[in-house]
Amino acid sequence: MSHHKTAIHWFRRDLRLSDNQALWNATQNADKVLPVYVSSDWEGGHSWTGPGRQAFLCGCLDSLSKNIENAGGRLIFRRGDAVEELEKLINEVEADAVYVNRDPDPHGKTTEKRLRELCRGMGIEFHDFQDVVLHEPEEVLTGSGNPYKVYTPYSNNWLDQDKPEPVNTVRTIHTPTSVKEGILPTVEDWGMSCEDELIYQPGEKAARERLKMAVKNVIGNYAEMRNDPAADATSHLGADLRYGTLSPREVFYRAEEARQASRSATNRNSIHTFQKQLAWREFFMAVLHHYPEVLETDFNPDWRGLEWDDPGKDGRFEKWQEGRTGFPIVDAGMRQLRETGYMHNRVRMITAMFLTKDLHVYWRHGEGHFMRYLLDGEIANNNGGWQWSSGTGADAAPYFRIQNPWAQTGRWDPDGEYIKRWVPELEKVEPKRFQKPPEDGGKLCADYVAPIVDHATEREETLARFKRHKEG
User: Fold this and answer.
1) By three-state DSSP, how is residue 128 classified?
2) Cα–chain-centroid distance for residue 310?
3) Can you give the pLDDT of all 472 residues of the chain as single tens digits?
């Protein structure tokens, strides 16, 4: 790798100074480094994001800017088309190299290709690095060199491979002084507003504290407690991995250090279960890489063209969005999502399967709703999870395996603690009543809505639709 007079590091989903592959290499190979973030210029609404997500992004950028300033540099902000803005900066500072960390999503890859071609045409070096994942899609393939379509063999291969170790934290950045910094983005720049306090404090320092607490208090009991929505015993690191305030390498190795140090076989197994969630994350990223059409249609071609209902039918989709279905576990999850930008993972599966199997609404509608609200919304994982729940995706739940929301409540929230936390109308209702539908289609209490469908009836309808499609 050549030594450069001035290099540009383009931040995207790597908003940190610790274990940042491209930034570290840029500072080691250039006299001066121009750190840049280019915000998108859409306004008014977006199918893949919402106010909470943008507020978290802005908070992370504010934190990053201060961290870079403490390291002696400045974070430069621009707004508009990323490649066009980077071209202007290349000319302005006479940069002789551009450093980026590779993006796993199709749009990011397309932009990288444009930037690579720009650099080639301008006669400067372009350096891209593996950073968002521990193993990129082409590293984890079957013995015949094909992509995996099933998680378990993928994860076995993924776990067997040596994991790249973190690089050092960047301590010093020398930024050219002649460039105007630009303005830190705000939620209002996108025509939005976010007055609610975020469930997570944004930024690298807060992310590292969450990791510390997860290693200390969560991952040792992860296998046993992760499905309990009331305990909420998960790591809460999803948003940090999505925006890159933590690297997956550091998460894996901090967990591995704890696993090696533990004398309890139960705890070691639990930590191993936690580490495998990183494999799930990368499995769905690999699926998206090899089969980008999954963002537009069903992964399994056998189910393309399956019969789905109009989402506007009887206002069912809107009632699902607002948590007014009359199914307590579903409504609790949907309200938690709207109020906090987070939903417990077990409940994500329950609510997704309810929308697709009980309300017969195509999964892409639910996928978009989740992405607009989830602070940790990851395009690949969200898509994979929704297709799994609908029965149309990679390694999906078989179409005939349909979760019963009432039975799921009895298994995962038997005392109704989670439900009562998010559906206050039900505070005085006996929790056992949440485990079966009210008699005669009535209400669980006067202030709560009656179930909008009968689960048993809709289950049979779903089975019939899949059977007709399979036979026809």
Assistant:
1) strand
2) 27
3) 679 999 999 999 999 999 999 999 999 999 999 999 999 999 888 888 999 999 999 999 999 999 999 999 999 999 999 999 999 999 999 999 999 999 999 999 999 999 999 999 999 999 999 999 999 999 999 999 999 999 999 999 999 999 999 999 999 999 999 999 999 999 999 999 998 889 999 999 999 999 999 999 999 999 999 999 999 899 999 999 999 999 999 999 999 999 999 999 999 999 999 999 999 999 999 999 999 999 999 999 999 999 999 999 999 999 999 999 999 999 999 999 999 999 999 999 999 999 999 999 999 999 999 999 999 999 999 999 999 999 999 988 888 889 999 999 999 999 999 999 999 999 999 999 999 999 887 999 999 999 999 999 999 999 999 999 999 8
The C-alpha torsion from 227 through 230 and 236 to 242, rounded to 10°, is: 70
C-alpha R_g of the chain: 24
Distance CA 324, CA 322 (A): 6
Residue with tokens 């925006």: 243
Look at residue 181 and give its three-state secondary structure: coil
Return the number of other C-beta atoms located less than 10 Å from residue 2's C-beta: 10
Compute the C-alpha angle 353/48/420, nearest 5°: 45
Q: Strand, coil or helix: what is 37?
A: strand
CA separation for the pair 399, 331 (Å, rounded):
23
- Cα dihedral 42/43/45/51 (nearest 10): 100
At 382, the amino acid letter reads N
Round to whole Å and give the CA distance between 298 and 393: 6
Q: Which residues of 277-312 are buried (b: 16+ CB within 10 A; e: fewer)?
A: bbbbbbbbbbbbbbeeebbeebbbeebeebebeebe
Between CA 223 and CA 217 the distance in angstroms is: 13
Collect all residues with Cβ–Cβ distance below 8 Å to 335 and sequence separation of at least 6: 323, 422, 423
Structure tokens at 114: 């444009």
